[in-house]
Amino acid sequence: MKGFKDFVMQGNVIDLAVGVVIGGAFTALVTAFVSYIINPIVAAAGGANGIGLGFHVIASNDKTFVDIGSVISAVITFLITAAVVYFVFVLPMAKARRMAMIRRGEDPDAPEATPEDIALLTEIRDALQNKDSSTPGQTPQQ
After folding, report:
1. Residues 6+ apart with CB under 8 A from 39
2. b/e for 48-66, b at 16 or more Cβ within 10 A?
3. Which residue, 64, 78, 76, 72, is CA-closest to 46?
4. Residue 112 per-residue DSSP state
5. How many CA atoms lie within 13 A of 46 on its CB side?
6. Burial grade of 73 (CB within 10 A; 0-12, 13-18, 19 or more)
7. Which residues are CB-neighbours of 129 under 8 A, at least 6 positions away?
């Protein structure tokens, strides 16, 4: 039971819960914006026939209606959501990381150092290539 309590009390779990709640509220806000502002504008572009932007594949069958307006609304919803996530979460976090690196005396524009295991594997690969190319009359094995 103590392990579960420690898990729940970790900052990551609380942050995740807050993010899910805020995300749900934001989804409702974007859905309302698209439903009550964007959809009527898109439907008006479809003409005065009242069905919105779309067409019937079979004129007498309402189930064959291709609703282009709904697709446009979904794209707009996605773009709004992506823009808010980028400008509210991604950019500020990148700026905060950059400021933290500057405070620690690190150069934020310096390329990341190659991990030690990758550097070692690269050296081994290069050594094997040099060995294969320096041995006359033999072809490198693959």
Report:
1. 52, 69, 73
2. eeeebbbeeeeeeeeeeee
3. 72
4. P
5. 20
6. buried
7. 140
Structure tokens at 96: 């905060």
pLDDT per residue over 88-118, tens digit each? 878 888 898 888 888 988 888 888 888 899 9
Q: What are the tokens at 11?
A: 């900052």
The residue whose two tokens read 């150092």 is 113
Using alpha carbons only, how large is the chain's radius of gyration in Å? 28
Token digits for 123? Answer: 């050296």
**Per-residue pLDDT, 50:** 55
